[in-house]
Amino acid sequence: MQRTVGDWLENARTATDQADQDRCLDVAAAQATSSFELRSVLRTLVLLEHPDPTRLSTIANRLVAEAITQGEIWGFRDVATARSVQLADPIGARAALEAGFATFAGRTTPGYVWGLLADGFVETLSDLEGARHCLAAGVDAARMAGDVDGLCSMATTMAGIAGMADRKVAADLVAEAEAALGGAVQGAWTVATAWSAVGEQDAAARLLTVAIARCAGTSDAVYVARALHHHAGVAAVGRAIDRGRDLAVNAIDWIAIAEAAFDLQGDEPAVRAALNRAAELAPDALTRSRVAGALRQWLGDAAAAAQVGSAGVRPDALRLDRGRLAGWELSANRLFDWLRDRVSPEILDRIAGADYGDDHDKHLAALLDIWTTGLLPLELGWHPGEVLRLGRWAAGERVDHLERAWCCTILWFLPGSHEQEDTAPGLIASCLALGGQAPALAEQMFAWHCSSDQAGEVDPEEEDEGANPVALVSLLLLRAAADPGDPRVGQLHRMLVDHPWCGPSILIDMIATSITGLWAGLIDDILVPARAEHPAVDQVLRYLGY
Question: Most buried residue, 316, 355, 479, 530, by CB count within 10 Å?
C-alpha cells in the first residue's frame, strides 16, 4: 500500500532518530502537492521541538504558491503564523498575508474569506489597519454582489476584533444586510446571527419572530424554527413549528415537521403525529419508506414502521441481469453480507462520528438500520450518507479496511450515492487488504453489476448500452490481482474496447483526477508488474494510457 503524506508525517512525529525523522519529512514534502497536504507538512514542522528553518521556509514558499493557485485562505494564514512565530520573520509573515489580499482582490471572494484574512492581520501582526483594509474590500465586494452573507461576515469580524472599536459600523452593516433581504425568510438566520454578534440580541429575536409570519411554506417554517432554537432555545421554537403545520400540504412537509420536532423539541407525540400524517399522504413506496425509516430510527418503533412501508431492499433487488457476462459467478448480496457479519457496533459508532461528531445519533440510527435489517434504504439521505462518504476517503497505513469496505459497499449500491469512480478503488484496495473471501466476493459483486441494469430500466428490445465502465475496470483489477493470466482478463478488455459510449479518454481522466490517487496505485501494483508476462494485461494498460 502506498504511504500517504499523513503516514510519513506520523512516522516523522514518532521517529526517535533525527536522520529517520528528516527522511520522513523529506518524503512527505516531496509527495505533497495540494494546499491541504502542504499545510499538514508545515503544521508538523511547526510542532517539532527544533524545526529546520530552511526546510520550514521552503515548505512555506511552496504553500503560498499553492494557496495563490487554489485561492485557499488557510495557506496564507498558516504561513504567516509560521514565519512570525517559528522563523521570527514578520516581514515574511506580512508578505504572505498581502499575497492573500492580492489573490482575493483579483477574483470573486466570499465575505467570510475576507474576514479570515482580516483576523490573520490582527492575530499575526497586531495590524488593525491591515484588517480594516481587508474588511473594506470585503464590504465593497459584498455590496457589489448583493451578498447578504458577505455583509454579515464583515460585521461579525468587525465586532469580534478586539480594539477595532467599529461596533457601530458593524451594526450598520447588519442593518444593511437585513434591508437587503427584502423580507425574505431564507437568510434571516444569518442576519440574526450577525445581530447577536454585534450585541443586538433583541434585534435577532425581532427578526426571527417577524420571519414566522412571512413563511410561505413548511420548509421556511422549519428553517426559522431551527434558527430560533439556535438563538433562543426550545421555548421559542413551538410557534414556528406550528406555522409549519398550518402550511403543510404533502407528506414531505410532514416528515420535515416530524424531524424538527424530534431535533428541536424531543417531543415524541408530536413526532409520531406528524409521521402518521405523512403516512396518510404518502403518494408512493419511496415516501412510505422514508416515513417507515423515521419511525424506526427516531422512535424505535419497528412495528409501526412495518405497517407503513418497507425497511428497504436486498442489494440484488436493485438491478436485473442482462446476461452480459458468461462464465462468471454473480452475486450482489454475498460481499454485503460477509462484511455485515464482521462489522461491529464499535465500527458503526466510529463511522457515525466521522463528521466531527455532528448528528452522531441520527447517523448511527440509520447505520444500525442497515446493519440489523440487512436491507438497503430505497434512497440515500444525509443520514448516513455524509458519514459514509467521509469513511470512503480514509487512506494510508492506518485505514480500518473493514470499516472502509463497509462504507464503500453501501455507497456503491445506493441510488443517490453517485461518484462510483471515487468509491470503487477504496473498496478494491480494502478487499485486497482484508484477504480471505473478500476479493472473490468483490469480484462477484462487480460482475453482477457489469451483467445487469438498474431495475425498471431493462428492456430487451432496446440496444444494450454496455456495462458500467467503472465496474468493468474494478472487476478487471480484481481478476488480474488473483490471476493475471486468466482469459477473462482479455474478455473484460474487449468489453472496454467495444464499449458503446465510454472511450479510453474517459477512463484515463477518471484515473488522473481521482482524489485519493488509488486508481493509479492499484494499476501500478496489480497490472504493471504483470505486463511483460501477459499480453492481455499489456493491452489493458495500453488502452488506459500506460
Answer: 479
Report the distance separating Cα 469 and Cα 462, nearest Å: 19
What is the C-alpha to C-alpha distance for residues 494 and 146, in angstroms, rounded to an integer?
A: 55
| Domain termination site, one of 282, 311, 340 | 311
Sheet strands (E) in 150-296:
none
The per-residue pLDDT for range 236-269, each reduced to its tens digit, is: 899 999 999 999 999 999 999 999 999 999 999 9
Q: Which three cell numbers stand for residue 2?
A: 502506498
E strand or H helix at 328, and its extent?
A: none
Q: Are residues 298 and 346 in the same domain?
A: no
Both 304 and 392 in one domain: the answer is no
Q: Residue 457 is placed in which grid cell?
A: 430500466
In this prediction, residue 49 carries a pLDDT of 80
At which residue does the C-alpha cell 482478463 appear? 489
Question: What integer is the mean pLDDT of 120-128?
Answer: 95
Cβ(13)–Cβ(25) below 8 Å: no
Q: Which residue has the cell 510519513?
A: 8
Q: Could you tell me if 325 and 270 lie in one domain?
A: no
Same domain, 439 and 483: yes
Q: For the chain, what is the domain count?
A: 2
Its pTM stands at: 0.89
Residue 453: which H helix or E strand, with range? strand 452-454
Last residue of a domain, one of 279, 311, 343: 311
- Identify whether 421 is part of a domain: yes
Give CA–CA dist 73/63, Å, rounded: 11
Q: Which own/partner pairs from 321-324 qualify as long-range (CB within 8 Å, at least 24 positions apart)?
A: 321/448, 321/451, 321/452, 322/451, 322/452, 322/453, 322/458, 322/464, 323/451, 324/450, 324/451, 324/452, 324/464, 324/467, 324/495
**Residue 464 has what DSSP assignment?**
P
User: Under a CB-based contact definition with an 8 Å cutoff, are residues 332 and 445 in contact?
Assistant: yes
- CA–CA dist 151, 305 (Å, integer): 46
Residue 232 confidence class, pLDDT cut points 50, 70, 90: confident
Q: Which domain holds residue 409?
A: 317-543
Alpha-carbon distance of 257 to 279, in angstroms, equals 13
